[in-house]
Structure formats: C-alpha cells, structure tokens
C-alpha cells in the first residue's frame, strides 16, 4: 500500500489552504509561486540563512515550469552585512521588499540590541497587511521586540527560553517543542528545528508530497511534528538496522494501516511496554501513540494528493479505520479537513 503511494508521481498544488476555502468546487486554482523575504543584520547566524537559501532558493530538483518560491535576502540597506563569526555577505535588497512578499523570515542574532528599529517597523507593517512571519531559533527575540508575539505561544532555543520569558512576559514561551504554528506567526526552536519549520511551511504551501521530495534532497526526516520535544537523546535515523527497536519502527512505518498497540510493538522489540515507551520517547522526542498518529496523517495527506480514493478508503489505508476518525485527527494536526486539503493539493492530473 505504501509502495503504491511512492510509485505515483505527483505534483502538488502551489496554493495555501487559506486561499482555497473548504467546500469549494473541484476545479483547482492555478499553481503559483510564493515570494519570501529573509531579513539579516550584523551578527546574524549563518546556519539559519543557509537553511532558508537551501529550502526557498532556486530548486534544481523541481520540474521546469513548476512553481516554487522566489527568495529575497534583505537588510536595513543593500550592502555588506557581517555574520556571527566574521563571514560577510552582500545583501541585495532593502527592507522595502517586505512590503510586497507573502512571507518574511527572521534570522537569529547574538547582537539583538543592535537590530535597527527600521527592521521592527518593517515587520510590524508586513504583519499588519497579512504577511506570514517566521522566526528561526532565537529570531523570536526580534519578533518579541517588535511586539508581534504578545499574547501568543512561541518557541526558541531551549537555552534562551527563560530569557525570552523574562524580558517579554506577554509571550507564552514553550520550551518543549520544535516549533509553534500560530497561523500568521510561526517560531522554531534551536538551529536544526529551523529545517523542521521550513519543511512545515513547504507542506502548507505545496503539499506533503513536495515537502517529502525536498526532505529527501536534504537527507532529513520528512516530518517531525512541531509538538515533539527539543531534547532527543538519540536521533532515530542513527539506530542500527540490526537493533530490534529500529526494526520495529521500520516495520511500523510499513504497516500503518494495521491496528497496533504499544504492547504489540514492545513484544516485537523484546521489551516490556514500559521500557519500549521510554526508549521510544528518548529516541524520537514523542510518544509511540503521537508518532503513529503523525505518520498516519502524513500517509493520508499523500493519498489525498495523489489518488481519487474516497475519504473512507483513505481512512482505511492510513490506519484510521473510519472517515470520522480520520477527520478528527487530520483536522487537529493539519488544521483543515481532509476534503479541503484534497481540493488545495491534489495533483491536477489525478483530479
């Protein structure tokens, strides 16, 4: 069943869910590109800028003519900007670019007090006109200083959560997640979580299949849910194939449509249920149940994109058994209904 999904070549719709209301007709709107501006300033950290350029820059793996992002690197003024560590880059665009893009991404800096006031003003203006704003790692401090996180949940690197809470008491800082999606404002935890948030954004804009293809190009897991913990003792991909625990996880990924319990998985791993649950949490940052739900929702997303299966059939093949159960968990995790997701992201040839 999973092989069937992998073998179908799909091109996801380049439409954000907000642009395609639930209950609309079956005709898909034309796929479009998205304009993204990333803001840098003296002292920015180059890792996150590299992630942004890799994800939203020119995508050589995307088919010719297929829409993707247009990336604009911006600063207070066009010209040289010096990163943390001494690397210097030439920024081609000023902050006026923020007035005409769909998404603005804020990079972290260890010299937050030196961020120009013009950056805060440009961010507030962009947000006021409905622009989506992302911060990566400690870039959350820049959004907080601009007043954009007041009354919201937010993530940042775990070592700086206390400081963010102390300096900005109106912000609800969540230290135990990889990223937080508040709709128009999204924030990520430490550096590697920047990749997770950027893939999450691609999934929102172009669908699960496209995000999975990009993850393969980056050689990273296709989806780590934002609710996973920042503290992961041992990354799952590092588990040896001969390890019973790793073998069980691989088996589970290939049998998502079958009813399984933690007791079943523990038995396959030759562990007690309690030991299995503890080791799973240490290896993945989430519980077996939540991980399984996330994997099943991701499979349902791909089936909705690349097939004309009914909602009930998608539910059966992704392990949710009933359409009602699929709708419940899908809506909670993806924040839209399966039918609305299909309208927005189904391959136009399939439709």
What keywords describe this structure?
351 residues, alpha/beta, Rossmann fold, two-stranded antiparallel sheet, 14 helices, disordered N terminus
Q: Topology, pairings included?
A:
Blueprint: H1 2-7, E1 34-39, H2 46-56, E2 69-74, E3 79-82, E4 88-91, E5 103-106, H3 117-128, E6 132-135, H4 140-145, E7 153-154, H5 161-167, E8 172-173, E9 179-181, E10 185-188, H6 191-206, H7 208-218, H8 244-254, H9 262-268, H10 273-284, H11 288-306, H12 311-317, H13 323-334, H14 338-345
Parallel strand pairs: 1-2, 1-5, 5-6, 6-10, 7-8
Antiparallel strand pairs: 3-4, 9-10
Strand content: 5-15%
Number of strands: 10
Name the helicity range: 40-55%
Rg for CA atoms: 21 Å
How far apart lie the N and C ends?
20 Å
Instruction: Label the overall shape.
Output: globular
Average of per-residue pLDDT values: 82
Give the second-level CATH assignment, the architecture of the domain at 33-218: 3-Layer(aba) Sandwich
Major sheet details: 6 strands, mixed
- In the CATH scheme, what's the topology name of the domain at 33-218? Rossmann fold
- Helix/strand-derived class? alpha/beta
Unreliable residue runs: 1-31, 226-242
Specify the CATH homologous superfamily of the domain at 33-218: Class I glutamine amidotransferase (GATase) domain
The helix tally amounts to 14
SSE pattern, N- to C-terminal = HEHEEEEHEHEHEEEHHHHHHHHH
Biggest sheet, spatial arrangement of strands: 2-1-5-6-10-9
The CATH class designation of the domain at 33-218 is Alpha Beta
């Amino acid at each position: 069943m999973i092989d069937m999904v992998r073998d179908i070549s799909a091109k996801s719709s380049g439409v954000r869910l907000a642009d395609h209301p639930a209950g609309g007709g079956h005709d898909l709107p034309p796929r479009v590109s998205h304009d993204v501006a990333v803001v840098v300033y003296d002292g920015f950290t180059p890792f996150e800028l590299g992630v942004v350029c890799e994800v939203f820059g020119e995508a050589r793996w995307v088919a010719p003519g297929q829409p993707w992002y247009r990336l604009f690197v911006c600063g207070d003024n066009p010209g040289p900007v010096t990163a943390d560590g001494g690397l210097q880059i030439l920024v081609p665009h000023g902050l006026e670019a923020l007035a005409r893009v769909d998404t603005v991404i804020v990079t972290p800096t260890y010299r937050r007090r030196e961020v120009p006031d013009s950056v805060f003003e440009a961010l507030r203006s962009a947000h006021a006109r409905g622009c989506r704003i992302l911060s990566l790692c400690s870039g959350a401090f820049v959004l907080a200083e601009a007043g954009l996180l007041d009354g919201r949940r937010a993530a940042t690197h775990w070592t700086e959560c206390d400081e963010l809470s102390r300096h900005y008491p109106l912000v609800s800082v969540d230290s135990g997640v990889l990223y937080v999606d508040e709709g128009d404002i999204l924030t990520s935890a430490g550096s590697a979580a920047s990749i997770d948030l950027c893939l999450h954004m691609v999934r929102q804009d172009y669908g699960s299949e496209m995000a999975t293809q990009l993850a393969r190009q980056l050689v990273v897991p296709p989806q780590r849910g934002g609710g996973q913990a920042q503290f992961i003792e041992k990354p799952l991909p590092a588990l040896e194939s001969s390890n019973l625990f790793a073998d069980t996880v691989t088996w589970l990924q290939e049998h998502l449509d079958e009813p399984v319990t933690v007791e079943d998985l523990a038995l396959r791993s030759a562990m007690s249920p309690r030991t299995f649950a503890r080791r799973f949490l240490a290896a993945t940052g989430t519980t077996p149940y939540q991980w399984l739900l996330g994997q099943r929702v991701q499979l349902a997303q791909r089936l909705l994109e690349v097939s004309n299966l009914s909602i009930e059939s998608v539910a059966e093949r992704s392990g949710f058994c009933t359409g009602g159960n699929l709708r419940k968990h899908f809506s909670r995790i993806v924040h839209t209904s399966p039918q609305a997701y299909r309208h927005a992201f189904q391959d136009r040839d399939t439709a």
